[in-house]
């Protein structure tokens, strides 16, 4: 093991397998039907086929790749180049824009997943700058705060290329949310309003070569807490997806200029579990560094919490109700979530409020999934 910090070492049962399963891949979906300027979303027979493909992929895999998505290749190449430049700098330079308790965006190199350190470094930025969020998770506190992006001195075009890329990602996310709504039998714009005060963010990932790739992971197994994830991976590859049918880890073969899409917890809730947020992880290797870029579309804080924690009807925009739910769970009011989703996502939200304390014993107050009230996806109270 040499000098590798034991904090990086995965428990035996979660270490990557030496023999990668590459046989069957996640579905590859061609979006040209909706990417062409003359496409007509209303009466296109091809649209019906596409919607069915999206629905099947979400249901059977929770993951798919898209091609002919309409995102100009140059925008992706620009951000990839700037990301390489940024991570290539000495640590002291990157640490000038390090995330901390006050500045929750920027560079970070000690991320942990399930208490094991990830073999990676990241740079986070919000799509809305600044993003307005509650200053505290307590519903009685009405104060809001603003999260600002941090920008390094070099590369000096990082901000511009990230903002350009974010605009493209927003368009793609909007198209995908529309297709997913249609695939659930909902109007195409059913979810759009929830993103009006979005808290979406972009993460640049860098996975350096690792001397113990059979013991460590770039990102340990996890599910994403967001609505969707739109991931651009480079040609090195390393993403693995847990196949729903048998729990086998499958390697996602890099497809040039494709984006990998996965269903997050929020869509799982919005679809009443018809679509599931699926476990995945990122492997590292000893020979080549790897880069990827994630866009995590998050609805406004209110809708996150309505979905993930059952916000009360009286909730004011931006009040975090998820945590409150832990304390008031017995009321069963608008409870739309089951234990694991609440746990995971609430932890994610609390991690952004490091000074707040999670109520003790809260898990015991969570209802079992069989007690859960389903989301009224066809009604108006979503
Ligand atoms: O880089 C990857 O392949 C996966 C990253 C990921 O799963 C995440 O950031 O949530
Ligand atoms: Fe992920």
From TrEMBL:
All residue ranges annotated as the Fe2OG dioxygenase domain in the record: 198-299
Name used for this protein in its record: OXOGLUTARATE/IRON-DEPENDENT DIOXYGENASE NON-HEME DIOXYGENASE DOMAIN-CONTAINING PROTEIN-RELATED
GO terms assigned for molecular function: dioxygenase activity; metal ion binding
Gene3D superfamilies per UniProt: B-lactam Antibiotic, Isopenicillin N Synthase, Chain
Keyword hit for Membrane: no
Keywords carried by this UniProt record: Dioxygenase, Iron, Metal-binding, Oxidoreductase
Leader peptide range in chain numbering: none
Record bears the keyword Metal-binding: yes
Entry similarity comment: Belongs to the iron/ascorbate-dependent oxidoreductase family.
